Amino acid sequence: MADIKDQNSMPNQEADNQELNHQEQHLVRLNKLAQMADAGLAPWPAFEPTKHTTAQVMQEFQEDQPKQYQLAGRIISLRLHGQTAFANLQDRTGKLQIYLRADILGAEPFAQLAQFLDLGDWVFVTGMTFKTKTGEVTLKVTEFKIISKCLRPLPEKFHGLSDVEVRYRQRYLDLISNPESAQKFKQRSKIIALTRKFLTDREFIEVETPMLHPIPGGAAAKPFVTHHNALDTELYLRIAPELYLKRLIVGGLDRVFEINRNFRNEGLSTRHNPEFTMLEFYLAHHDYIYIMEFVEQLISSLARELYGTESVQFGEYQINLSAPFERISVRDSVIKYGGVTAAELTSENIDQILQKYKIKDTPAESLSAKIYLLFEALVEHKLIQPTFIIDYPLEISPLAKSSNHDPEIAARYELFIGGMEISNAFNELNDPLDQAARFKKQASEHASGNPEAHMYDADFVLALEYGLPPTVGVGIGIDRLVMILTNTKSIRDVILFPTLKKK
């Protein structure tokens, strides 16, 4: 059999089949199944218990004390030279070179290896450690077995693929071939685990609330609609868990959080996916001023735990995640970052300024709401360093309590990092009469054709009538936070299986 070259030195995995396309190689591998059956070899045998990992072999290696190891992994490169072969075996912890010889394995097993082994196959090996003349830690194999046959060739030079959709549609190929991508998702898992620990260390309890809602609520968004046949009723995939979590505060669970999926029937972009992960937590007897410092501590601690520093790279920017973060009002941010003067932000001039920046067909009526439209258009994308935006118009915050200083302003913040909204928080409205009135106004807007306006939720109003203590609620977009902490510019690269257009 001709040499099978290293994947890094030749575009195709099998030099003999260099001219064959992917489908033809698939047929070649299918043909090997029949040959393996004739040889009495099972392509997918019962599992072999592994005792070690490639990382363990590398960490424990001592040249003067060779040890025996048993491990399993995927063959990602293979070089066959007569009666010997070198291969790279990859498992969840890394990769390791293995060395195979006919005089050790036996002539027939080695011949079967040469005949049937392909790149991508999962194998079980037993062997002794040694170091090659080039200084590479290697396992000299004494026992070898194919434990899962790979019927399709792995991607050729995966890093060079121009069609990035392959990475999203077949994420398993991305994880096999791109160590950076696999590491990113390991970091995501660690970020979530550290976030959970941060909260539980502060006496929060983790809860689960419904994904199917009879009334969508908790955010301004268009929901996905489904139907429950047995109940013969329309249900909605949740757009936020907020109203259920606040019911738990009413019930006396003063500190609760949930890390789970939300669903919003919106467009796709580098920052939006219709299905996304949100952290929401609620804390009684505190306010949004207190929680800004709390969130600063959380995000700073994540950076320190991950990298030992509070400074992270995000694209071309170096972002400083150390506290305190800047705090600035919507109005002042439009002046500071939007290039608009204070004189232009008046009732007499605001409509002209909106026209200047081509902000049209807006339902906003108040001056503060119109200033917010300028903020969305001119400021959000410029907030690279962590910035708390405060003093939002109450009319765009239907679940928030008003500020003690101004009844037209919400006691609320939004946190922006890297030009993206990362977190939203506010003092929760706990006046059931006020909440009912706001729901009625929102319901009227919904009936008038605004699909993102809240419906009237009588059951939630009923819960408030039993008494919601002063409470602050926080939402943090986990996907976007992971983007910041892993230097990732597209949300699709931090979601294992992002939503894609059907082929």
Describe the structure.
This protein is an alpha+beta fold and 503 residues long. Among the domains are: 15-154, Beta Barrel (OB fold (Dihydrolipoamide Acetyltransferase, E2P)); 189-325 and 421-493, Bira Bifunctional Protein, Domain 2 (BirA Bifunctional Protein, domain 2, 2-Layer Sandwich). Helices cover 32% and strands 25% of the residues. It has 15 helices and 18 strands. The protein has helices at residues 22-38, 54-60, 102-105, 107-116, 165-169, 171-177, 179-200, 242-250, 288-307, 330-338, 350-356, 367-378, 432-447, 458-465, 478-485; strands at residues 68-81, 84-91, 94-101, 122-131, 137-148, 205-206, 212-213, 225-228, 233-237, 255-263, 275-284, 311-314, 317-320, 326-329, 387-393, 409-417, 420-427, 471-477. The strands form 4 sheets. Strands 6-10-11-18-17-16-15-14 form an 8-stranded mixed beta sheet, sandwiched between helices. Strand 1 (68-81) and strand 2 form a beta hairpin. Mean pLDDT is 92; it is low at 1-19 and 158-162.
